[in-house]
Amino acid sequence: MQLKPQDFLVALKLVAWGEQRWTYARLAQELGISVSEAHACIKRGLQAGLLLPNREMPPQPAEAGSIAALGVQEPMGIYRVTRKRVRRSALPDSEAVADNAVRPHAQNLAEFALHGAKYAFPAVKLPLVVGVPTSHSAPAFAGVFAPGTPCGWGKARERGMALERLQALIDPNAPKPLKGPMHG
Question: What is the DSSP letter of 18?
Fold first, then answer.
């Protein structure tokens, strides 16, 4: 499994949506990818640890591939128990949220965004064109950086400011770094 840039984008989109209910079709439409690619992104995000499943996985036999491990029992998955369908409008909000297949793993996602993304997906300088605002032009950083600040990973001061803001956006429950005079 190799993580793709769109996998990171999908995980960040789920962070942006927060606790609201989502579908693969809506995810695909909003990000401009196919539904099958949205599903593949979720699978790779789970494997990489950027996402967490919302449902308990069924217990697997000791040796899943071995017929002898099943013994006399019937193979798992032949019978499926279903529950009575309930209209979504009749469900309380907390149950609708649990209906999402996955949720972002805030700590892992923040760590990857802060320390791994620049190595996994290196920035390539291209000529300026009209497009999606990124770097210091993004709305999340409006008023933080001076106009004309170089884009990319920038200097240590800009990186520190971006890392602090990004950490707060992805994982608001993370401990805040201590600020004070540096001694050493």
Answer: T
Same domain, 183 and 101: no
State the residue range of the domain holding 15. Answer: 1-56+86-105
Q: Within 13 Å and on the Cβ side, how many CA atoms surround 57?
A: 7
pLDDT tens column, 91-128: 454 444 457 889 999 889 988 988 888 888 887 777 87
Residue 118 lies in a domain: no
pTM > 0.70: no
Q: At what angle do helices 35-48 and 24-31 cross, to 10 degrees?
A: 100
For helices 5-17 and 35-48, the axis angle rounded to 10 degrees is 90
Q: Which amino acid is at 33?
A: I
Domain count across the chain: 2
Same domain, 38 and 96: yes
Say which residue the tokens 């196919």 belong to: 34
Q: Is-contact 9 47, C-beta < 8 A?
A: no
Is the domain of 154 the same as that of 101? no
Residue 108 is which amino acid?
N
The answer on 146 and 178 residing in a single domain is yes
The DSSP code sequence of 98-128 is HTSSEEE-HHHHHHIIIIIHHHHS-------
